[in-house]
Amino acid sequence: MRPANEHVAVSVVIPCWRCAGTVEHTVASVAAQTRVPTEVILVDDASGDETLAVLHLLAKRYPREWIKVIGLECNGGPGTARNRGWDAATSPYVAFLDADDAWYPRKIELQYGWMSEHPDVMVTGHICTEAPRAGWSGSDAIASARPVPPRALLFRNAIAMSTAMLRNEPGVRFAGGKRYAEDYLLWLELALSGRQLFVLEATLAHHHKAKFGAGGLSGGLWKMEEGELDTFNRLRRAGKLSLPAFVVVALFSLMKFARRWLITRLRAR
To answer: Alpha-carbon Rg of the chain, whole angstroms?
Structure first.
């Protein structure tokens, strides 16, 4: 199994935790890109099962050194795993993908192409569906690109993790040890410091499960909410968010949590 298409200067980082049943499909979606990334970095977050062995076997199916496997001795959460992979990345762009999600074939081609033409933009995301439609291969063009201003970002995380591509700059990393909403914190830190974030209007990825109320990290609704509130509190303590603004966004976040809780209860019936 060999990705044969043209390579582009993107490193892909995939954090892995007990993902032996899904990661093969995830990596296959990267190898099937019309523009293949330079490298794929798989980081096992001390799964304690067969995941690490599966990753090493998977790496042998592809060209030598296209897949790098990193095994962590202690579980540090997805942010820590992403940081380890990010530290090992050698390309000027880094794209992140969760081990239970997948990309449509033109994701790298379109997103990398757009970012190459817009050197002032630090982060881009795009549309991600909850389940693939049979026979559909995603968007074949970017309809438009909309900026994500800090004020809007405070009320909604507009960039899903498996859609994110960033410029690989030193010193830009996820908060170590933070297990929930660590991506949201980084996007807000960048936006509030004046960096540009955009969402591309193109469907280029899909989840294998619902965004909340399912298994994995997304299943712990209250822990997710605590992580989001912690994000706002860190920004407040850092002087990037006033106390009145903190109260407003925290209350809005709690309202969103109540809605999600109700949806999961209705699904369970």
So the answer is: 18
> Nearest-CA neighbor of 164 among 254, 252, 79, 62?
79
- DSSP state at residue 14: E
User: Which residue type sits at 4?
Assistant: A
Options 3.40.50.150, 2.40.240.50, 3.40.50.1950, 3.90.550.10; CATH of 7-208: 3.90.550.10
Secondary structure class of 162 (helix, strand, coil)? helix
Q: What does the alpha-carbon distance between residue 39 and residue 185 come to, in Å, rounded to a whole number?
A: 26
Full-model pTM? 0.92
222-263 confidence digits (pLDDT tens): 999 999 999 999 999 999 999 999 999 999 999 999 998 898
**Structure tokens of 74?**
């202690």
- For strand 7-16 and strand 93-96, is the pairing parallel, antiparallel, or unpaired? parallel
Q: What is the pLDDT of residues 185-198, one digit of tens each?
A: 999 999 999 999 99
Q: Are 57 and 66 in contact (CB under 8 A)?
A: no
Encode 188-212 in three state secondary structure. HHHHHCCCEEEEEEEEEEEECCCCC
- Distance separating alpha carbons of residues 7 and 135, to the nearest angstrom: 25
CA distance 14 to 79: 11
The enclosing H or E element of 249 equals: helix 243-268
